Amino acid sequence: MVGKLDGMLRVGEAAEYLSVTSETLRNWDRSGRLVPTRHPVTGYRYYRQEDLDAFLAAIVAKREHE
C-alpha cells in the first residue's frame, strides 16, 4: 500500500481545513488558483498546510483592498 506524503493533507482534509467542499478545491485546482502536489505513484492530490495558509491570507488581503 502506498502511503500518504508526510505533512500533506488529502483533498478532503484540505477542504475541511479551508471550510469548503472537496469539489470547490478540485475546481480551484483545475483553474490554477491552488496547485496541489501529486503523489508520484497514485497521482492523488496533496496540499501543504503552509500553502493553504498562504492562499487564505491572499484571499483576506484581496478582500481588504476591495
Automatic annotation (TrEMBL):
PROSITE patterns: HTH_MERR_2
An example Gene Ontology molecular-function term: methyltransferase activity
Pfam families found in the cross-reference section: MerR_1
Xref: InterPro entries: DNA-bd_dom_put_sf, MerR-type_HTH_dom
GO biological process: methylation; regulation of DNA-templated transcription
Alphabetized Gene3D superfamilies for the sequence: 1.10.1660.10
Positions of the HTH merR-type domain: 8-66
Leader sequence residues: none
Record keywords, A-Z: Methyltransferase, Transferase
Protein name: Site-specific DNA-methyltransferase (Cytosine-specific)-transcriptional regulator
Species: Rhodopirellula maiorica SM1
